[in-house]
Prior knowledge:
The chain is α+β, with helices and mostly antiparallel strands. It has twelve helices and 17 strands. The protein has a 17-stranded mixed sheet that branches.
Amino acid sequence: MGDTRFLHVTQWPSAMESIDVTYEAIAPSQTSSRQMQVWEQTPTTAVDQIIGRNASATTEKARFAGLGSALIEQAARTGSSYRQTVVNLGAVSSPDKIQGKATGAMWGIQSSPSASATFAITTQSGATVRISIADQREQRATGSGIAVQIEVDGNLTQQEKDALQSLAEGFDLAIEGLTAESPVLRLDGLLKFDSKLFTKLEFKVDIYGVDQDGVRILKLGANISADAKTREIELKSPEGTVRMKTDLRQPALWGTADQKAYAVRQYLSRIDKAAERGHADSGLVDLFKSSFAALNGGYESANSPGRSGSASISIGDPVDLTRDANAFSEGDKSLLTGLADFDASITATRRASNPRRTKEVDTFEYTLKQSTQISGSSPSNRGFTQTQSAKLSAAYHQSLHSRAAPKLTSDSATQNYSYEKVEDSSSTQVELGYEKDEPVRALITQAASQSLHVLKVENNKITENTAEPAHVQSKQTDLLPLLKQLKQQQDANQLTHDEKQKQLQEWGGMVLGSLATD
């Protein structure tokens, strides 16, 4: 028989019910290993080669490897639909028994996969391309296998095909990150799609497993959508939910790549501090951090870092202040985070971990928001108000002797712990205004509040129940004198580039600073 062990099905029933079909053994089937591969169609494409290779892999990451990019490349090259399924079956005694077993396996892959991924994109001309992958990694009674499909509705122009092709590697990297043992979001390659050619992009991954009782559960569900105005992420796992949305309608306020990177680092540090204070699940926090970094790394900054003076635009020039990169000066932008507006949240699954006191629920919820309102009718009469806010609400059980979570049971001997509730909030608001290109308002207002409630239990008896008074702070900084001085020195050429950058960096640090640990 040789080493070949593929039985290729050249005719497949169009429906799931059993009907007479013709099977052609293009290559001899080998059944001595008690396994065989059955194909929906004769394997002839590069995609088929990858499916055949991956179908024997044992991890989701390896089973999806290279498959997403191959499907996008085929869709971009042909502009037409395609489908293929390969199933690994236990060997049967005769070819006429293959149909029933292969049909059952195919149905199982589609209806109850161990993992699936879909990618959909809509062009400006109205055409749509949808790519789907369903994988059944576990060798069930019906078998295991991989099913893929390309659906093209409408005609793709050559320019659209080329732009689609450019997303191939990004699709692979996005799947690779989410199917890794420690999932991360890698969306740069996908989110840099050409919004002049594509109106909307959608990406979805679902990975399943079983819980301690053997019940099938969703281990990780990821939904990402993007268009020219907004980008959204939702991640779900047994540990909780992560959501984030960015508003891309005001690109004039975005910073340089360095400014955005600095802002992201500051926010990731805040998230770490909030997670530590609220005893959050580390895996869920990692997903939140990678989501925040991904959505704030997938859009380009404005073409210009901002004008240094005012001579290039006359007072009466009509300008869209939300989109014109020259509408706001470099000094103006130093008082912004440099990020697009966003609304982000992480919410842990609520758990009653103490069977003796079920009202003591472990929770963790942390939200981050930024909103910016632009005012004025021209660059010379411009202004904005940018508000950042953070809120932490958490409750957790803690051992009396360490930071570890106590192992609580119905046994009174285990009832030695503290149950702590945290409520924190903080905000930073920046107000800036110009009249006839002269600064008239430059104000930073910061506020923060922290509170902690502690219930201590020893030998199943409450020994302490205290609520610390809320620690409230506020601070207001008027930067108008410094802004006027900076403008005067700049107009008189009395300020070196390094001196100016040092001042702007100090202001940026104030904008992203926090009065309290978020």
